[in-house]
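Reopening: structure tokens for the magnesium ion complex, inputs below.
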Amino acid sequence: MSQDIYPVPAGFAAGARIDASGYEAAYRRSLEDPAGFWAEAGRRLDWITPYSPDAVKDVSFGGPGAASGDVHIRWFHDGTLNVAANCLDRHLGPRGDKVAILWEGDNPADSRAITYRQLHAEVSRFANALLALGVQKGDRVTIYLPMIPEAAVAMLACARIGAIHSIVFGGFSPDSLAGRIVDCGSKIVITADEGLRAGKTVPLKANTDKALDQAPGVETVVVVRRTGGKIGFQEGRDHWYHDLIAKADPVNEPAPQNAEDPLFILYTSGSTGKPKGVLHTTGGYLVYAAMTHEYVFDVRDDDIYWCTADVGWVTGHSYIVYGPLANGATTLMFEGVPTYPDASRFWQVIDKYGVTIFYTAPTAIRSLMREGEALVKTTSRASLRLLGSVGEPINPEAWAWYHKVVGDERCPIVDTWWQTETGGILITPLPGAIALKPGSATLPFFGIAPQVVDAEGKVLEGATEGNLVIADSWPGQMRSVYGDHERFVQTYFSTYPGKYFTGDGCRRDEDGYYWITGRVDDVINVSGHRMGTAEVESALVAHPKVAEAAVVGYPHDLKGQGIYAYVTLNAGEDPTDALKKDLVAWVRREIGPIASPDLIQFAPGLPKTRSGKIMRRILRKIAENEFGALGDTSTLADPGVVTDLIENRQNR
Ligand code: ATP
Ligand code: MG
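Re-run output (same inputs, fresh job):
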């Protein structure tokens, strides 16, 4: 992997919120005295009843032979607070007229700027509307909305009254929506008539109607009018959002919640199997989301911050809505896609609003890189000062393009490793403190105790490679799988008893930097050499003709496992046998003979989750010739891709 080091730029070092020695000191303290450290950090929020010093941390990860009841995680557990009050009410004095949400529609002509005062007013009204509809504390509220400000309003209104939201990404089908409604037993769904993506409508209300045939427990549907398209409307069950808002009392007192009352349920993206209903609670989650947002993105009062995720994913929860609003930041919300009207849309939006901090995913970077740099260079991007990446390992090639072409070599890149389960970022550079290495998420955030273990759970020291576990809790950690604590314990605490197992593999280098090598389930074992998928894929993507690559293992008579590589070429490149040979030679040269692909299949597209992650388990089944056992494919973005891959499978 790349050995380049990018030191902290002088500008960042000068204005740093925390520098290298400050990071080391704070990190050390956070591990030596977690309760003391987090007691202090928790004061960034307004508490209705302050937590007592001995209630800051109450955690057991169980241990060998522990019963499931032995795993419990509580933070700040005698404190009470309200998340919406922390994201809105407390900002009204100092920044009531500051823009809270900048909204950019799918159509570049559509935009809105909503101040903290306006957002507070709308959330208060909608909270009262939910109460009037009979929603009570602890009830689950399913939100199936496009990326419009009403999505944030709905989240915050739930938080204000203590209802638990469960957001389902607007790209999911009626079946997937129904499954998630039934799993958490919600009686109310908030949706829109239609969504808009790349100029096309998405039939959200029609999907909801279909889903409700399989989810008869739903009594109430709230519909936001987005496009004005024709929809079915069931009197008594369905309500227009704007009617409810118009009728609602404008004053709503935020209801005190215990720090451990549930805030939301969110299903994981389903890269490895059936999604899990991840449960997050109130106090610890918000402390952690707000603190990481401030430190990782170096957020200042005059920043225009843009995270391109959808609120249907955890990144949208923590880093579009809760973290930024708790910090009183201006957060940009984008309804559209990176390639509409054309592939310069991201850069156009950055110039339009003077975006200073930009946070996106490797899948988006790779797809825009494929379009070439000319489109990027039609824009200025001079306002940018910091870039971020999340969702998958970022290949050094894509990192370099992001740094050079998008950031004009001026902006540090924070490569943030985390999961739906972790609530916030765990391993990441702090831009004023930590030098960067392309492809490495670098070092742990405060309070995070990563360990690298071998298959038996032995802790490996120094520069090494193995499975990534976290030895102790942090406030943003998930508390349970909704309705199934046993599954929570089994999934995360049984592989290495007493430790949180991330499911990811990683390498730690001689500087203590962490490199996520991919999912442990995806590790390939060639002639006794264990290899992460990220390294081989990065080598392939570094080839000038390759846009994207995914590698998996398949049974091989001599080596145990062989390497099967699916390769997507740059626009206009020819898929020839000569190129296959060239790619094999290329990987041999980049990594070594052990990593040379045995079979290469050119693929016009790869199977991805709706959040853009490559689903290697499906590719593995295809490589193994097991087309009948593809498993849960409900989270696939484009099932058509799979048919093409099966038809063009390479034979041994
Ligand atoms: P499921 O758990 O249902 O299989 P998922 O793991 O894709 O789905 P998420 O919680 O959205 O669901 O994704 C977390 C995973 O994404 C991490 O475990 C890791 O594999 C990957 N990931 C996220 N950020 C990074 C990063 N910066 N570098 C490397 N990998 C990352
Ligand atoms: Mg996962």
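The pocket of magnesium ion (ligand 2) is lined by residues 268, 272, 419, 503 (CB under 6 Å). The chain has a mean pLDDT of 95. Marking as resolved unless the reporter disagrees.
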